[in-house]
Automatic annotation (TrEMBL), chain A:
It is found in: Nucleus. The lineage of its organism: Eukaryota, Metazoa, Ecdysozoa, Arthropoda, Hexapoda. This is Origin recognition complex subunit 5. It comes from the Eukaryota. Pfam families: AAA_16, ORC5_C, ORC5_lid. Residues 304-433 form the Origin recognition complex subunit 5 C-terminal domain. Residues 10-153 form the Orc1-like AAA ATPase domain. It comes from Frankliniella occidentalis.
TrEMBL record, chain B:
This is Origin recognition complex subunit 4. Pfam families: AAA, ORC4_C. Keywords: ATP-binding, DNA replication, DNA-binding, Nucleotide-binding, Nucleus. Transmembrane segments: none annotated. Residues 63-224 form the AAA+ ATPase domain. It is found in: Nucleus. It comes from Frankliniella occidentalis. One of its GO terms (molecular function) is ATP binding. GO terms for biological process: DNA replication initiation. The lineage of its organism: Eukaryota, Metazoa, Ecdysozoa, Arthropoda, Hexapoda.
Length: 437, 447
């Protein structure tokens, strides 16, 4: 008699599990040609699917399309996972025809005609970039291979609509994984509770954490990482005996700058934990740290020499000001006239700051450089190599590769970066920027 | 609602189905839904007869011919051919003496592969292996030669079925098609070539020399072409009934008692006069006539049958229909973080102001900052976090780059928004726990 299969328990994904089980879980029943699982990144698509397939004892092959970037890699990986051992070189598959042939041979040898074989393709949106015949063929694998129990399961965080224009794809059964709600996220994060602390203490922390992070990020993997990273900091003063475990107010005061700093570093996974901790603990540098944003730290990390700083500022001005304005800006004028220039340009439709940098040639760069720097360094090889090294650092972009033409450049750093560099020189950039309001 | 919680008891023999019966029914129905050729052929009797006579003449009299079967995707072209073959298998004496070669444009991507496929299906790989041929034509004619024994009457006839025929037209020089049609026309060996395609203009793709060898026989399959909406809906419901009812002559499942079978079929009769079910099907038909979507729909409905849900109810229909009809773009937008949703709103305003001109990150960011200054509660928008959010939207393909040149800096690359205003506003409406200023911003006329 057909018994109802055991259903795996996946937190917050009960409905999706039930649906997958009802489609795949009854031995002896036909399976659909293709299933398309879609949902946001890290909404548990692969995890749920693997759990279901494992608990149903379904033979499956799972390939990520980032790895299988060529059809051959894709096919061989699928075959070897279905057999359970590496495929011999005689069974090389260069194209879908050989793949189907091998699949049939495997099915014959292992007597798989009556058992479900699932082919799981993660990141299946990448299949669109391969041979245009590959995806339609894979989606019809059941029909083409005459194996009645083959089911292709596509996973993607891109909608099915985006697959459709290539045409000729049979509509798959779609299962949508909704994004976790705030409560779901709290439930999942509380799974990572460390042993040494009580549950409500940890859940209090998670409430604070989620309140800060959820606005900018709902990616559960990233949230888990960040929650674990910050929890140790949260507990530090308790371990040292400075703050009582029940004094949530003080704990919040202690953790909130950490959380804010950590929010800026989201997805980056810099190992900055120690540095921040020492600065915060010393107390005095605390304020200074919180005013320094991560972009400032990035800008200062280059430790550019004096002339190079002026050069990059000059490059920025050359990129974001039209050459027409140069005369007005850089020829010494009285303050009154300068104001007029600014007023006139405040009415321009779109600021050039949002339109991106323009190209400029070396002469213009040097001209601006000499007008903004107080002393007049001699033009020398040393000065010109500074430009090359700025290009090497990718702060400047060289445009055009024609060796006969005079070199042209583009500034590759943003306004924030320049502001910080200018601050170190106590130089007022905004004075020279036409579009700055 | 006819959920029957008590029926799991074995004593309850009166009206309800037993769980064991439901399992068998589910299995039979899944087979019926997922394998179109398992059911008796419906509709298009004329086209069916055409293909049947074409094949029959090729098999019985060794008559060579070529034809194209044209019809939109999912209208049952392959099913028709499979049903024809099945019918021939039943009553054609010459069936065992003929070979059917199936080629598919997706699989046999060039002529070399196609030839290999032909050799495999004719079971002639061994003979082909060690021979060297000058040309493709020689190769093919050798293969066909192998099937000849003595005079014309005793030659095995071969039926070539070329699915996705249009893709074969893109092969270099159309060598395969040329040779196949050439053989078919010059009566070298009895072969019948049937191309199946969804492209109506497929004959325009054929080269002149190929075209001249093609018999120009076209069989068109347009099952929905002339029907009115009302007729269509009626046919739809009939089709659903056919797919979901179990025929009494079904001998594959002896476990199923006649009583259970009748119970199911009467239950079904009641189901398809229910206004909710009819509305669901009508609604779906108004969106798509594609039969595959209907099969998916019915499969999901049938999948809901289980030990504690023994009958299909109208609610099942309406729930599955809602699930399938859901606009996933909106659902995806609801799953974004507040920051990402704010970015979408900025893009929406940007599009409104600049008449859907492409935008870059800086423009959207500037707009977001402006909103941030106006709103009472300042949210800490760090530039890098916003960049990440922007990139997330890009990877979701909610925004698409105008050009893919790598010369432009990341912040200044131009994008188009792939969502419409209504979708974004719907997502804003449905979003749980969205700050009021954000939703006000989304609905304001921003200028």
């Amino acid at each position: 008699m057909v018994s109802s299969p055991d259903i795996p328990d996946v937190l917050c994904r009960h409905q999706e599990v039930m649906q997958l089980v009802s489609l795949l879980g009854h031995p002896g029943e036909s399976v659909p040609q293709s299933i398309f699982l879609t949902g946001h990144k890290s909404s548990g698509k692969s995890y749920t699917l693997m759990k279901v397939l494992d608990s149903l004892n379904i033979r499956y092959a799972s390939v990520n399309c980032v790895e299988g970037y060529m059809p051959r890699l894709l096919f061989e990986s699928i075959l070897s996972q279905i057999v359970g051992e590496t495929v011999p070189p005689s069974a090389r598959c260069e194209n879908i025809m050989e793949f189907i042939l091998q699949l049939k041979i495997i099915a014959d040898n292992h007597d798989l005609h009556e058992s479900v074989i699932a082919v799981v393709l993660e990141g299946s949106d990448r299949l669109r970039d391969m041979n245009p015949n590959l995806l339609p063929a894979l989606m019809r694998l059941q029909e083409l291979s005459c194996l009645k129990k083959v089911c292709v399961i596509l996973l993607s965080d891109v909608l099915w609509d985006k697959f459709a224009p290539s045409g000729g794809l049979p509509p798959p059964i779609q299962i949508y994984f909704p994004q976790y709600s705030q409560n779901d996220i709290l439930k999942i994060l509380s799974l990572d509770k460390p042993k040494d602390y009580p549950a409500d203490f940890h859940s209090n922390y998670l409430q604070l954490f989620v309140a800060v992070f959820l606005r900018s990020c709902r990616d559960i993997t990233e949230l888990r990482y960040k929650a674990a990273e910050n929890f140790s900091k949260y507990c530090e003063p308790i371990e040292r005996g400075e703050i009582d475990i029940n004094d949530s107010g003080k704990l919040w005061k202690h953790i909130s700058p950490h959380l804010k700093a950590s929010l800026q570093m989201i997805y980056m996974r810099f190992e900055t934990g120690k540095k921040i901790a020492t600065e915060v603990d010393s107390g005095t540098s605390m304020d200074k740290h919180s005013t320094l944003s991560s972009s400032a730290k990035y800008a200062l990390s280059f430790e550019l020499p004096y002339y190079a700083k002026y050069l990059i500022i000059a490059a920025f001005l050359a990129s974001y000001n039209s050459p027409k304005e140069d005369k007005k800006l850089f020829v010494k004028l009285s303050g009154r006239n300068k104001k007029k220039v600014l007023k006139k340009n405040a009415q321009t439709k779109i600021s050039s700051l949002v339109m991106g940098p323009r190209q400029f040639d070396l002469e213009r760069l040097l001209a601006i450089f000499y007008s903004i720097i107080e002393e007049k360094p001699h033009i020398s090889v040393n000065l010109l190599t500074q430009i090359t090294s700025l290009v090497e650092l990718q702060l400047l972009q060289k445009a055009g590769s024609d060796p006969l033409e005079a070199p042209k450049y583009k500034c590759a750093v943003g306004f924030d970066f320049i502001i910080i560099i200018a601050k170190t020189l106590s130089f007022n950039v905004t004075k020279y920027l036409v579009d700055y309001k | 609602m006819s959920r029957t919680p008590k029926s799991s008891k074995p004593s309850d023999k009166g009206q309800a189905l037993k769980p064991s019966d439901v399992c068998v029914i589910r299995k039979i129905l899944k087979d019926q839904i997922l394998m179109p050729s398992a059911n008796p052929f419906r509709g298009s009797p004329k086209e069916f007869a055409d293909v049947l006579s074409l094949f029959r003449r090729a098999m019985e009299h060794g008559e060579s011919n070529s034809a194209l079967l044209i019809g939109p995707r999912g209208c049952g072209k392959t099913t028709l051919v499979e049903c024809v073959i099945e019918a021939l298998q039943r009553d054609c004496l010459a069936f065992d003496d003929s070979v059917i070669v199936r080629l598919n444009g997706y699989v046999h991507m060039d002529d070399r592969l196609a030839l290999k496929g032909i050799a495999t299906q004719l079971q002639l790989e061994n003979t082909l292996g060690d021979k060297v041929f000058g040309s493709f034509a020689e190769n093919l004619s050798f293969l066909l030669q192998c099937l000849k024994e003595g005079d014309r009457e005793h030659t095995k006839s071969v039926i070539f079925i070329l699915e996705e025929f249009d893709l074969f037209c893109h092969h270099q020089n159309q060598t395969l098609l040329y040779n196949l049609f050439d053989v078919a026309q010059s009566a070298q060996a009895p072969i019948c070539v049937l191309g199946i395609t969804c492209r109506k203009d497929v004959t325009d793709l054929l080269e002149k020399r190929v075209m001249s060898r093609f018999s120009n026989r076209q069989i068109h399959l347009y099952p929905h072409a002339t029907e009115t909406f009302e007729d269509g809906v009626k046919n739809r419901i009939q089709l659903c009934k056919d797919l979901l009812s179990i025929r009494s002559d079904n001998k594959k499942h002896p476990q199923l008692s006649v009583r259970a079978l009748q119970l199911w079929n009467t239950h079904l009769e009641g189901l398809f006069v229910n206004p909710i079910v009819v509305d669901c099907l009508k609604d779906m038909y108004a969106y798509t006539v594609c039969e595959r979507s209907l099969r998916n729909f019915l499969l999901l409905v049938i999948c809901r049958l289980c030990d504690d849900h023994l009958e299909v109810t109208p609610t099942d229909f309406s729930e599955v229909s809602r699930q399938m009809r859901r606009n996933l773009r909106v659902a995806f937008a609801e799953g974004l973080s507040i920051l990402e949703l704010c970015l979408l709103i900025s893009m929406m305003h940007q599009n409104e102001i600049f008449d859907s001109a492409p935008f870059n990150f800086e423009m959207v960011f500037a707009r977001l900052l402006k909103f941030d200054q106006h709103s009472s509660k300042t949210m800490t928008v760090d530039r890098q976090v916003v960049v990440k959010a922007f990139e997330h939207l890009k990877s979701l393909e909610f925004i698409r780059p105008v050009s893919t040149s790598s010369q432009v800096l990341k912040e200044f690359q131009m994008f188009n928004l792939m969502l419409i205003t209504d979708e974004i506003r719907e997502a804003v409406n449905n979003y749980q726990g969205l700050p009021t200023e954000v939703s006000q911003w989304a609905f304001s006329d921003y200028t």
